[in-house]
Amino acid sequence: MNRKKKHTPGHRLAVVVMLFYFLAFLLLAQHQHSVMGYLLAVIVPGIIFSGAFLLPYLFPTDRLLMLLTNFLCAMGVLLLYSADPALALQQAVSYGIGLVAMIVCIYMVRAWCSLSRFSWILIPFSLMLLALPLIFGNDINGARNWVVFGSFSFQPSEIVKLFLIITLAWFFSRMKILPALFFLLVCVSFLMLQKDLGAVLLYFVTALLLCWAATGNLWISLSGIGMGTIAAWYGYHSFAHVRLRVALWKDPWLNNGTSGYQLIRGLEAISHGGLWGVGLGRGDPASIPVYESDFIFAVLCEQFGLIFAGCVLLMYVALILRGASIAISSRRSFHGLLAMGATIILGLQTFVIVGGVLNMIPLTGITLPFISHGGTSLISSMCLVGFVQGVESLNEENLDEDIRLSALER
Amino acid sequence: MLSAELYDTLSLAARYLFALLGVLIVVRAFLWILSDRSEKHSRIRQLPVSGCIGEFIVITGGKDLPEGMSIPVPWEGVLGSVRSCDLWIPCSGVHRNHLLFSFEIGSGMFIQPLSGCEAAVDSCLMDCHSKPDKNPLQHGSFLRIGEALLRLRIFTGLDPSAGFSNDVNTAPPPFFPGEYTAAPVQNIYGTSAFIPNPEYSDSYPSPVFPDQSLVPETQFVPDPAISPASSLPSDPGETNMPIQSDVSFSPVSLNPENKAASQAVHSVHNRRRSSRWEADWSE
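Structure tokens for the assembled complex are given below, as produced in the milestone run.
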């Protein structure tokens, strides 16, 4: 049986993506009058080329997934460069570290069979990380979920997100539901103490969907939904900022627009961009509070327009579809659940933040995967893609084995 | 460097180009996804048992498990009585999630009964406290769960006990014990490089059950077209695990052109499983 070569659509798509970023950074370089723009116009397409054509020589990976991931990461660098070149430089460095971390995660997934005995170590290590902000953390925007050591800061919940996926996938693949749910409960308790309710939502819904994917047990899933509803009701009545966020969702112009200023500015920026955008490097992203992190999607809509923003959302959809397809095609339960968990987290995170920016749902303080400024967030998102790519590399080898075995019969 | 006015003009013009490139990227990405999906479906048609290590043949079962039915076995998963399980065994005595199984090349299939469940592998009873690596299923092994008795057939090339060689010029190991006599045979590739495993030259596996109630009533009569008479078990004192004579254990090949072999084990459950697997594999 001959396998259809996949390089033709990949080549064309990679050329289009490389052309897009070459032109975009070249244009911005004219606006910023900075050498960095010219360097990025060469480096970013080079990274995209490497990811699409050179990395598959190390191990079989999904080229479409690699292209989409690189496109979204580069989009983050581009948008930040249009607003603040210093932030773009930080993001570019995180992008490079994220690529290395992704490759490490690919190797880790491929070697998991020999590393599985260390899975239990992840549990105490995760709890230690989640306890760090409570001891050393600072209150930032009402949540105590950051750890700052001098000029270096990181968000432990972003790292624990990876360990949670691995641990849940391992437990569920062994049908050990109760230990998995207990670990989830402890993690969620730590996050509630930190008042990081966005992460609580992510962890809980991801675990619920993974449990359903692993067991197919409707009663467990319905019980989980019930518990989540009770927890949401408790959070609404216990935390004042939750009540404020819900009130702003209903009426952003509450309190004469003082409380909902960030949301109002984001919506105004989106409407200012219209269908085609105001143009790259134009607009006023600095007028949106925390534009570089939570409201980067509003900056994207303002500069590139709703049509292009819709295309970016469709790229996220394509990424999620690809991840789900890879998860379904895996031979081992653990690999399938790992890829599914990574895909669920990325999709859920995208939906929650984009929905919040567009005021479809109450706003939460989580980042848009790959695009938002934030080293820990970008690296953890790249690691999640690394998990999916690792599973895909095993799927490709399994397929080659099937074809070889079928040839043996001839 | 460009002036501010010139840059504004270029930027306003470029936004249409960027939107067009964005649409082009999205369209190409989804066309790629659709192309891969059709390739996957084509691959499933050409390799319908891709992803399986072999199959279980039903020796005895309930009304939903007719004798002789073949059940494809994936590499790893859960065996139970609910359809969401990787191996669906709708038989009395089989729990919703009965046991975990996992196949390792070179070792066989390991099973781990879940809490409150039991299974018997050949002559060895296992429960949730048993170590899975103690008694793996090999090609021809019997598995008793609830009222069902299954026999494992592993595909050629994956059978660990026959000393599989990766050399394609070497004959594949005997698909079923007894296919080869003690004398070296001319393999299908024209050379006699393969020396059959002498363990397979005498008899079919004959598990001895401590509890005679586990012995099924049906008798095993091997297909004479496949196994020579000299390979039949000669000791009447042994407890044989029979199979109905109309069920042939001809090799099931991954090669879809080998229809004569695969037709022998075609069953209603097989066809139902194929459509179900295609539905499961579709996106």
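Chain B has three helices and ten strands. The longest strand of chain B covers residues 52-60. Further analysis is deferred to the final report.
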